[in-house]
Amino acid sequence: MGQVLAVLRNLLGNGTPTMQISTVDSEILNRRRLSSTGQTTLKSYSWSNRLNTINPDDYKHIGLESRTIVHQPGSIKGHQFIIERCRNCNIFLFDWTDSITILDCTGCAIFVGPCKGSTFVRNCDDCTILVLCQQFRTRDCRRISVHLCCSTKPIIENTVAAKFACLQVSYGELEGQMAQAGLSPFNNNWTNVHDFTPNNGEGGTSHNFSLITDELATAKVGLNDPEVIGETDLLASFDPSISLVPFTTGNGPASDPGEVLHDRKSCNPTATLKFPFFRICRTVW
Length: 285
What we know:
With 285 residues, the protein is of the alpha/beta class. The protein is built from 5 helices and 13 strands. Strands 1, 2, 3, 4, 5, 6, 7, 8, 9, 10, 11, 12 and 13 form a 13-stranded parallel beta sheet that branches. The protein is elongated and about 120 Å long.
């Protein structure tokens, strides 16, 4: 009798794992069945969604001619931006960016909203650039006019006949955009230009650039003029009396306070500032 009970115990003990295995197998099969019928969803990751929605072409302008383009607040949202090989264009970026690259442009007026990183300008001629940024640098440029709010010392290299002025600008979203880009309107080193390739004059002063100390220099660019923007409302003011960026002056190779920036057509440094902007087609983003 004892031997019979021992055999029964062994049989019952060996049967338990079989029941557990069959249960696990049925659960796996059930999960596969639910997945195949669409009753379960795959986990979604933020980076995969972002890759599906970003179009790099939305953050670049290449090879444009005689165009006026306005990017409204909220249209860039901290992405990198490229402007390349544009001619006689007016380009306005009223949003914050991560970094800006401007290459091989001629005769353009470019406004760049708060830039978290660097603004790099290379091989550009007769352009007017208005920008708020962490770092500003040029290379191989000629006769550019820069209205600047920069957290660090601007740097020029192989650049001649450059003129710098204190940017004066205000629009509704600007203060919030500067906070997103980590910039302060009260930290502006626009006068502290460092020239890597100086053409030194008396006292070691570089002849490759000069500073414009006219408080109305930005306003005189005329970006709000109808011949520049047509019927487009920029919703921005370049009036120094309401500018978010305080007007400042500093030590450097300053020009006469009454001098205005060069006219990009005549390239006469004492000419009246009235840029011959071109407007054939307007695009609002």
